[in-house]
Amino acid sequence: xxxxxxxxxxxxxxxxxRLFSKGEEVLGLSRNPGNQIFExxxxxxxxxxxxxxxxxxxxxxxxxxxxxxxxAGIASMNIALMANPFVSEKLVKVNFLGTxxxxxxxxxxxxxxxxxxxxxxxxxxxALNLEGESIYAATKAAIENYSRTLAKELSGFKVNVNCxxxxxxxxxxLRGVSQDQIQEIVDAQIFKIQFQVQDVVDIVDLLLDSKAxxxxxxxxxxxxxx
Length: 226
Known about the structure:
By secondary structure, the chain is an alpha/beta fold. The chain has a single domain (2-219), classed as 3-Layer(aba) Sandwich (Rossmann fold).
């Protein structure tokens, strides 16, 4: 089984659908699952007790977990000194702690499986130090640092941990971002292209492939950064 958080829309949904189409057993976790072609559960990634409950259920039924893909996240663009404290706290809880809690809940199942992969999601904004994205980008930079350390801690269990850091992909997270702002980010990439959701899904496919077993503790920037 492969567990995908944030699987109700955008990148998470595309990843879950691709994996399911390839014959993988997929469990999609999100607050509002909807009617998907793969198995889903309603869950808030900031609720560790709920994550642990689902993990325990999977373990007791004997189902094997080979990977966890932590896509769930939110974005909010604000000048640092004008950021709403409630929004800042929510960014930290959903983006960073949600990734930490999910990894803590499900990594033991991957270890029981004999190894596998954890894929976390950052953003190219963390590397580019974009104005107006300081708190959002900081939560994602924290995920990158966490992932590098987690990769070391889990290496003895044959668990790979990597990050994917997309540029501006056309999903709900770009609502309210002007075309000029999007173009500014694209221009800062090595490839001056606005990549698509499927380009991100392709990187997930690569990292889950057994041929990528040597890749761990890395952050892959879609579009590239200088």
